[in-house]
Design a protein that fits this description.
- The chain is mainly α.
- It is about 70% helix and about 0% strand.
- The protein has 5 helices and 2 strands, in the order αααββαα.
- It is elongated and about 95 Å long.
- The N and C termini lie far apart (about 90 Å).
Length: about 160
Amino acid sequence: MGAFRTYATLAAALTAATLGLGLARAQTPAPQPDYHPSMADLMTMAVQPRHTKLGLAGRARNWPYAAYEVSELKNAFARIARTVPTFNGSDTAALVSTRIKAPLDELETAIKARDGARFDTAYADVTQACNVCHRSLSHDPIVIKAPDASAFPDQDFRARTGR
């Protein structure tokens, strides 16, 4: 009878340990797969809002904020080129360099000069460069334009006066 009790105790202990391990495993979340954003994800998350905010800041002649946004837009394109090096068989960095770099540089120059008319022309050129790039990648339905209203109702794009 003593051996039976020992085996029963041992079996119960092993069962409890096994159940405990099962519960511990069940409570540990499975590792998530790496997230690899698509070109569309990156354009929607990183480029489109920057383009919009840049247009709104430029319209308000808020040069410090426009300078910030043009820098962020340039950085967004650089991150996209690193994240999606090839898109539809095209070298993304080369597309950025040939399609958008010069118009963005001109826009940055207009912002530094605080020249409203030059900004308006350069912003239109950046917008047109986006559309030319979309057409070159067979994404004709995606047409970018200057914002006619703010998609950011919680942000004031006017320049701050005084501190």
